């Protein structure tokens, strides 16, 4: 079993370019199914979730390969319309292939992605969006969808990121215009729109809650560079806030980190947001301060994916911080592990009260979800002594070489076999 061995007590110092965004590259890979030529994608992170998406593309008949941070997809031979149960289970985001499969093949057969570490994750909004575009959906022993999308009015009852992306991807292959209302506004949706338009699609409105897709245009092949990962950046900033020091991150848009930077500013860090970088500095002699309630919300609110890393930093602080997780049911699975490290946190339902302690201490802890894993690594670097972190399979889904990134910033961390 691989574990991460982290020794706290060293400040983080230096500069790093953040890798490409998992939540952007996954829908973009699904979108490649719609192209009529080879697509070259740059700045693609090497992640197990990306491997899973490439596996699905290959099973559907595409040629797809990753070399370092470049992925090439030749979708011209794709003829499959079935995603196996195993592939659906391997990654919840597999559901994002539904829209493009219908647009390309006029049918799609898959299974429920099932629950995940964050609690039940329904796909009702994805399916109602597909129905609203004129496709038939049957939920009898799996999900079977038939019919080429016509387009129409898609009204989402909640701004789901995945359902917005699925609707956009299906709508690109529709014969008419589609209007998606109450769309999610996450920056990765803007990246997907830019990618689709670079291949010749007509999509507008991403970033607002109404997205309009003019379907019926044939998409060419092309080249695109994936945006940087704001959640990886938030994790590295949390680690710096926990350990102290000064870190400058490039490759991410500061506007996408505004809420996270504002929390660290209130906690007593010096923060700088520039066009070309974000920077955070924390004097090790001055403890962090508790901050007013952090409530997760759809973008541009505080990202649910940054909740765990930021909590890890604030676990050692002066004062209390209340967290309210409004997006997912089981998003406090890092809390018992932080408590093992000496944190004083109580949870009730979707609320967590963090009473700051002077310092955390190293312990054997286990990541049970992706961002919770990033959070435990951040906590370990601010803690006294050594932490042995297991559950790295979760971390490798969304952080490319987390230990290498942290080591570049001066952390004492390595991956070991136990
Ligand atoms: C995406 C991100 C994930 C992030 C989340 C919220 C990707 C690959 N993943 O996940 O990292 O944590 O956005 O920012 O981009 N819901 C329904 N029915 C549905 C779909 C969603 O009820 O059909 C609910 C979910 O249970 C959840 C909320 O809507 O409570 C938001 O989920 P959603 O935005 O869909 O998250 P994902 O797209 O799965």
Task: Describe this entry's structure for a reader.
The protein starts with a strand and ends with a strand. It is elongated and about 60 Å long. The longest helix has 14 residues. It has 2 domains: 208 residues, Alpha-beta prism (UDP-n-acetylglucosamine1-carboxyvinyl-transferase, Chain); 204 residues, UDP-n-acetylglucosamine1-carboxyvinyl-transferase, Chain (Alpha-beta prism). The protein is an alpha+beta fold. Helix 1 runs parallel beside helix 2 and helix 10 runs parallel beside helix 12. The chain is built from 14 helices and 23 strands. A hairpin with a 2-residue loop joins strand 4 and strand 5. The strands form 6 sheets. The protein has a 4-stranded mixed sheet with strand order 21-22-1-23.
Short description:
The protein is elongated and about 60 Å long.
CATH topology value of the largest domain: UDP-n-acetylglucosamine1-carboxyvinyl-transferase, Chain
Count of individual domains: 2
Q: How many E-type strands?
A: 23
Q: How far from one another are the termini?
A: 5 Å
Question: Could you outline the blueprint of secondary structure elements for this entry?
Answer:
Layout: E1 2-7, E2 12-17, H1 22-31, E3 39-42, H2 48-59, E4 63-67, E5 70-74, H3 85-90, H4 98-105, E6 107-110, H5 124-132, E7 136-138, E8 143-146, E9 152-155, H6 161-172, E10 177-181, H7 187-198, E11 202-204, E12 210-214, E13 222-225, H8 230-243, E14 245-250, H9 258-266, E15 270-273, E16 278-282, E17 294-295, H10 307-314, E18 320-324, H11 335-340, E19 344-348, E20 351-355, E21 364-366, H12 370-382, E22 386-390, H13 392-395, H14 402-408, E23 412-417
Parallel strand pairs: 2-14, 3-13, 9-10, 17-18, 21-22
Antiparallel strand pairs: 1-22, 1-23, 3-5, 4-5, 6-8, 7-8, 10-12, 11-12, 14-16, 15-16, 18-20, 19-20
Bound molecules: uridine-diphosphate-N-acetylglucosamine (UD1).
